[in-house]
Design goal:
Helix content: under 10%
CATH class of one domain: Mainly Beta
Shape: globular
Number of helices: 3
Strand content: 35-45%
Structural class: mainly beta
Order of helices and strands: HEHEEEEEEEHEEEEEE
Radius of gyration: 17 Å
Length: 201
């Protein structure tokens, strides 16, 4: 069941560096009926020339480089290209709650899609996602509301305590564990096993 987005804000499950009150969230048009709009504030390329390698025990990420906005604060997205995006909004997902992301309709109708895994109970970090431009060139201004985050009730099987957890103001790639670095791309051992809750101990 969807959780009222005001509940998520009031409980501190989601924060924004420029929103201190509920009025702030409303005035910036973040607060929706069933979900909270989030912005795109950071964009990285995904290096198509580096092989992505993964097993049940380890993974080597493709990596990429920061994409810079132009003088008008717009990014240009190349056609048929995927990017790694991140919002300035930070979430702390409690036990009994999970999150999912969806793209806003205007992007969907112009061939731009957003994908992300489930944000498990215990995840703490920025709202991150992959952005896929499946049509022609597109320009997106930094800070644009690009998607919505839904908070969902969950009968959690423990809490996430993996390497994607990271502090506000940092990129997820800086916090994915003690990694060996090859050609600038982190190679990490997975550590995503759920931690038991009190009832399981």
């Amino acid at each position: 069941m969807l959780i009222n987005p005001e509940t998520a804000i009031q409980n501190g499950w989601i924060t924004h560096p420029e929103c201190d009150t509920m009025d702030d969230w409303t005035e910036r048009k973040f607060l929706g009926t069933n979900a909270i709009d989030f912005t795109i504030d950071d964009l990285h390329s995904i290096d198509a020339h580096t092989e992505f390698v993964i097993s049940n025990d380890a993974k080597t990420m493709r990596g990429g480089s920061e994409q810079f906005v132009n003088s008008s604060l717009y990014w240009t997205l190349n056609a048929n290209t995927s990017y790694d995006g991140m919002s300035d909004m930070h979430v702390n997902v409690p036990e009994g709650v999970a999150c999912e992301l969806i793209i806003r309709s205007s992007f969907n109708r112009n061939g731009i899609f957003l994908t992300a895994g489930v944000f498990d109970s215990g995840y703490s970090g920025a709202i991150g996602f992959a952005l896929h431009n499946m049509s022609g060139l597109a320009s997106i201004r930094r800070g644009t509301r690009i998607g919505q985050i839904k908070f969902i009730q969950s009968n959690s099987n423990g809490v996430y305590a993996g390497g994607y957890n990271h502090l506000p103001g940092t990129h997820w790639s800086a916090s994915i564990g003690a990694a060996t670095i090859a050609n600038g791309h982190p190679s990490v051992t997975t550590d995503i096993k759920p931690q038991p809750n009190a009832s399981q101990e």
